[in-house]
């Protein structure tokens, strides 16, 4: 860094030395997705080195790391026990400063998921924090399966059946579930 | 959020008159408050209202203030501190290092790059700072680092803040709902937490100016700064960051440029400032003494509070200018020359006070004693003529007081002074004397000084709030009695 100082002193007043100009507008600063990519690489490492039971995720083969496919196993003692669900993650270029878009790819009957697989979960919207990550999202979704938020359902019928008719609910879950092909 | 979502994250510094114009057609309270704003703050820097403005404004100001200190070592200290705070994030905050290391890296990289530039090219350093804070990826990382720090600090110090957490959320609920969500505006508790972890520990104060519809012709403001257990600021001369708060939005305010290097020196070592002032006194003495500079006035400067710029200036007895006047009287100088001769650069207040001595100079026409302040006249009326001995007494340090107190005409107004408590707390280690406090307190009221010259001068009683303030000691044994006393006796 001593060279920096010399450059500065030798340059004409008011003009930025080239190395400082590089700092100001260098390629690393120009690309928003760069730090996102790095973060997602780190997340992948974490998922592989310390996996959580019942959840997994991996980037799609199309490269770019901005789209992933994840799986959740239905928790024991819930209507979803024994079922596996696939989800898609789409990361915005400013991830983790904006939440990923998460959808159920496997059809699921659940009070907080609509028939397109869209999820109503506050941590994927206004309560998203940059300290969350793919694994914490998957674990949150897994617990959502056993503890739906029936106060704000996307599927009103499911919310009602969850409370009033667990057997009917379980039937609906099983009839809706089907295995989707890997992409 | 009320402010525009367009434009740069951190805007260019503008004249704060722009705010006045913006509110020209608003509610009369806003008109009055924004009209008064530019008198105190010359410039402001708009921050994008994207839900992070308060965090970003405070964060940017943190770096900008560090830059203005022009002190590479200070930046390096911050680099070390920020790195060591990772421990807080993991052990107290409960965040995993791999999650925040990239964010912290943006903070530490910026500190490192600024350290490299600050000495050689301050201008490039400022540009770099603005550029980084306007690059989303970097700016958002730094802002999020600040959120993590505030969140961890709350987790580690729940007792101090619990009472301020709304709606029975609890510490963890508050962290999840108010601090950690990426676009959640900072609330008052969040700002307090951020100041407490980021700015107070390094002696930076934050003044928040609240521009709202509350009554008044000026915006209210509150200063957050490190205080000791008695509420006395521990670093009263530290740099201050000014933020403008409008409901749910923060911008940065600036006073006119202050030489921050001096402020920093002051903050670290108040003695420096006093040494400077004393040099000035020595320098000015010959000027004001005119042809009588053969008198050795410099010994007087060793007496605490004795000098051009000591707080109880309006006593008028202790300044070199005053000494000149009896001499001129002795030489039958006209009263007019007596009033003109004391004028020396920067001594106008002394001139006024030396004219305010009717008891001492009966020859002067009434108009000469152009008293404007009753606080000046009152004490003097109690002094019996001839008063020429009083200057010496009034400027003696406390241990020399008994001779003064023994004078019955003076004890008559002692009860009045004893009611006064010192402006600083009772535990303050420095108390020059009650009489001087009275003088300083009275004298302060009508005059509002805001210049940096004042802040750094002896007039500024804020120095007394500094627990590290150490007055120069006067040791009678090692000094000749002051010259004027000999002369007048």
Automatic annotation (TrEMBL), chain A:
What keywords were assigned to this record? ATP-binding, Nucleotide-binding, Transferase, Ubl conjugation pathway
MF term (GO), any: ATP binding
- Give the residues annotated as active site: 120 (glycyl thioester intermediate)
Q: What is the lineage of its organism?
A: Eukaryota, Fungi, Dikarya, Ascomycota, Pezizomycotina
Matches recorded under Gene3D superfamilies: Ubiquitin Conjugating Enzyme (3.10.110.10)
Q: Which EC numbers does the record give?
A: 2.3.2.23
Identify the residues that the record assigns to the UBC core domain, covering every copy: 35-182
Native source species:
Hyaloscypha hepaticicola
Annotated region (Disordered), positions in chain: 1-36
The family assignment reads:
Belongs to the ubiquitin-conjugating enzyme family.
* Protein name in UniProt: Ubiquitin-conjugating enzyme E2 2
Q: How would you classify this enzyme at the top EC level?
A: transferase
TrEMBL record, chain B:
Its recorded reaction(s) are: Thiol-dependent hydrolysis of ester, thioester, amide, peptide and isopeptide bonds formed by the C-terminal Gly of ubiquitin (a 76-residue protein attached to proteins as an intracellular targeting signal)
- Which intervals of the chain are annotated as region Disordered? 335-430, 458-489
**Which InterPro entries is this protein grouped with?**
OTU_dom, Papain-like_cys_pep_sf, Peptidase_C65_otubain, Peptidase_C65_otubain_sub1, Peptidase_C65_otubain_sub2
Compositional bias, Low complexity, is annotated for: 335-356, 366-375, 412-429
- One GO CC term of this entry? nucleus
Give, as one word, the top-level EC class: hydrolase
| Entry annotated with the keyword Transcription | no
Composition-biased stretches, type Polar residues, lie in: 458-469
Report the superkingdom from the record.
Eukaryota
Q: Which ranges carry the OTU domain?
A: 42-256
Q: What is its EC number?
A: 3.4.19.12
A single BP term in Gene Ontology: protein K48-linked deubiquitination
Cross-referenced SUPFAM superfamilies, in alphabetical order?
Cysteine proteinases
Task: Alphabetically list the UniProt keywords.
Answer: Hydrolase, Protease, Thiol protease, Ubl conjugation pathway
Q: Which GO terms describe its molecular function?
A: cysteine-type deubiquitinase activity; ubiquitin binding
Ranges in a coiled coil:
none
Q: What is this protein called?
A: ubiquitinyl hydrolase 1
Q: Which organism is it from?
A: Hyaloscypha hepaticicola
Organismal lineage: Eukaryota, Fungi, Dikarya, Ascomycota, Pezizomycotina
């Amino acid at each position: 860094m001593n060279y920096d100082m010399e450059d500065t002193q030798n340059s004409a007043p008011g003009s930025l030395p080239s190395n400082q100009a590089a700092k100001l507008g260098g390629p690393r600063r120009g690309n928003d997705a760069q730090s996102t990519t790095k973060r997602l690489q780190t997340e992948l490492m974490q998922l592989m080195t310390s996996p959580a039971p019942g959840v997994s995720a991996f980037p799609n083969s199309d490269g770019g790391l901005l789209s992933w496919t994840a799986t959740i196993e239905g928790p024991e003692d819930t209507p979803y026990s024994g079922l596996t669900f696939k989800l898609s993650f789409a990361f915005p270029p400013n991830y983790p400063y904006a939440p990923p878009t998460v959808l159920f790819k496997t059809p699921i009957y659940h009070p907080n998921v609509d028939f397109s697989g869209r999820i109503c979960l506050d941590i994927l919207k206004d309560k998203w924090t940059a300290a969350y990550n793919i694994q914490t999202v998957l674990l949150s979704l897994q617990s959502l399966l056993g503890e739906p938020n029936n106060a704000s359902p996307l599927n009103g019928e499911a919310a009602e059946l969850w409370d009033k008719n667990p057997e009917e609910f379980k039937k609906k879950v099983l009839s809706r579930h089907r295995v989707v092909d890997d992409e | 959020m009320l402010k525009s979502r367009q434009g740069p994250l951190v805007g260019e510094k503008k004249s704060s008159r722009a705010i006045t114009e913006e509110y020209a057609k608003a509610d009369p309270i806003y008109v009055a408050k924004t009209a008064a704003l530019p008198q105190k703050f010359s410039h402001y820097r708009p921050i994008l209202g994207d839900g992070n403005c308060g965090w970003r404004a405070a964060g940017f100001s943190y770096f900008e203030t560090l830059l203005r200190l022009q002190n590479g070592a200070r930046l390096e200290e911050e680099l070390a501190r920020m790195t060591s705070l990772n421990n807080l994030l993991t052990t107290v905050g409960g965040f995993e290092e791999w999650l925040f290391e990239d964010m912290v890296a943006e903070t530490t990289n910026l500190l490192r790059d600024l350290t490299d530039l600050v000495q050689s090219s301050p201008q490039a350093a400022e540009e770099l700072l603005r550029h980084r804070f306007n690059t989303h990826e970097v700016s958002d990382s730094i802002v999020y680092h600040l959120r993590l720090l505030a969140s961890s600090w709350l987790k580690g110090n729940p007792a101090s803040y619990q009472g301020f957490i709304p709606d029975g959320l609890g510490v963890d609920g508050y962290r999840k709902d108010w601090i950690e969500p990426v676009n959640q505006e900072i609330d008052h508790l969040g700002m307090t937490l951020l100041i407490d972890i980021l700015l107070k520990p390094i002696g930076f104060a934050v003044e928040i100016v609240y521009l709202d519809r509350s009554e008044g012709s000026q915006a209210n403001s509150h200063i957050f700064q490190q205080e000791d257990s008695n509420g006395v600021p521990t670093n009263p001369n530290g740099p201050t960051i000014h933020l403008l708060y409008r409901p749910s939005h923060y911008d940065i305010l600036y006073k006119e440029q202050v030489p921050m290097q001096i402020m920093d020196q002051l903050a670290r070592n108040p003695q420096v400032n006093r040494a400077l002032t004393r040099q000035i006194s020595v320098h000015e003495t010959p000027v004001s003494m005119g042809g009588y500079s053969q008198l050795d006035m410099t010994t007087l400067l060793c007496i605490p509070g004795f000098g051009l710029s000591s707080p109880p200036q309006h006593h008028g007895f202790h300044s070199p200018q005053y000494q000149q006047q009896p001499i001129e009287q002795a030489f039958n100088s006209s009263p007019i020359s007596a009033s003109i001769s004391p004028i020396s650069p920067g001594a106008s207040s002394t001139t006024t006070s030396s004219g305010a001595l009717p008891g001492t100079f009966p020859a002067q026409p009434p108009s000469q004693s152009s008293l404007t302040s009753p606080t000046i006249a009152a004490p003097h009326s109690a002094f019996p003529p001839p008063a020429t001995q009083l200057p010496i007494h009034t400027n003696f340090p406390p241990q020399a007081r008994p001779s003064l107190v023994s004078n019955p005409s003076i004890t008559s107004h002692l009860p009045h002074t004893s009611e006064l408590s010192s402006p600083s707390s009772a535990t303050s280690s420095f108390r020059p004397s009650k009489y001087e406090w009275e003088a300083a307190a009275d004298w302060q009221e009508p005059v509002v000084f805001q210049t940096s010259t004042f802040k750094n001068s002896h007039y500024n009683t804020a120095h007394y709030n500094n627990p590290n303030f150490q007055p120069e000691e006067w040791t009678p044994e090692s000094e000749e009695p002051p010259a004027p006393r000999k002369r007048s006796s």
